[in-house]
Amino acid sequence: MTHFPWHIIFDIPGLPYLLYKKVYRDAFVLHDETKNDPYEKEEIGKLLAMHSENSKLKDLIKESAEKDLVLPDTRLELQSTWMKWFKYQPIWRIRNYYGEKIALYFAWSGTLITTLWIPCLFGIAVFFYGLHLRYYCYY
Fold first, then answer.
1. How do the domains of the chain map onto residue ranges?
2. Which of 48, 67, 101, 113 has its CA 20 to 30 A from that of 131?
């Protein structure tokens, strides 16, 4: 079994490089690793371009990029159910991914927005009625 050469990661300026240079003492990754990451292919392309002369290293980078994740891809599941237009909020998945406090915030804001539809429509109706009165009654 071959191990991923981490010294390659430290050659690219970014968070691992800054941690290595002791600019930051610690880092907290906010999201789980996912197959649907838009920047992952770009980063792998940069690594392959930087180390194009070493074919063994190039094969190792490609192999690690194609490796499947062991854990379920919760970020992809959350994105597939939540990122639809006019869809319900999957509060249980938000809770599993972000935690209870953030899920409670999204549940509260969703309830607030839902309860404000009737006053919003009433306000729009009163506005247009006011326009109607001003145009037809005063002119």
1. 1-71, 73-139
2. 113
Which pLDDT tens digit goes with each residue over 70-120? 556 777 777 777 766 667 788 888 888 888 999 999 999 989 999 999 999
- Tell me the backbone φ, ψ of residue 67, rounded to 5 degrees: -65, 135
Residue 54: which region, alpha, beta or left (left: phi > 0; alpha: psi -120 to 50)? beta
Q: How many angstroms separate the first and last alpha carbons of the chain?
A: 86
**What is the pTM (predicted TM-score) of this model?**
0.50
Q: How far is CA 112 from the centre of its chain?
A: 24
Cα 100 to Cα 88: distance, rounded to the nearest angstrom: 18
Q: How far apart are CA 122 and CA 126, in angstroms?
A: 6
Report the alpha-carbon distance of residue 79 to residue 86 in Å, rounded.
14
